[in-house]
Design brief:
192 residues; 10 strands; mainly beta; six-stranded antiparallel β-sheet
Amino acid sequence: MALADPSVAPARSDSPVDRRRILTGAAWATPAIVIGMAAPAAASSGGSSTPQQPGALALVSASAERVILFGFNAYTARATAVFAGAAGSASVTGVRMRISFDSGRAGATAPTIASGSTGWSFSATTVTGSRRHYDFVYSSPVSAPSGATTALEISFVGTWRFGASERVDFQAFGTSQNVNVQSSVFSDHDLD
């Protein structure tokens, strides 16, 4: 076998594969390599678990009543906060309940929490406009399925004032997946 002389240029080939076809093939192959290298990093970033959606709260059995005893008005209000998120949603922590009366009916003294209201504690009383708010905190998270707080029942002796609002508002609040969640406001108008 004879060795080729390096000083002699090779003859042009008429074969179907020439330099232009090789460059064209390389140009089409390069993006496929780049995309192929990026795919594993994107695929591994999602992890194997699906992130949970934030949970939600709703109110049930909310009611208020007034009883006249020896010239005093004894007010009672009760409500339960329940988990209202979709199946598999994250728990709601830091559950709070706000019960609001007309400030002419309710004073700044903390209401009494009924003995069956396990896990609830009084937090604060504030006034916004003509409404007095009593705020309470629940000691445990609420989660699916069908999680709920114990019923919060409060009572206090207040005044009756002609023309004062008869409405009592209830609302529950909490945090789920670092998102603030709250129930709709429920109002009871049956105090008188």
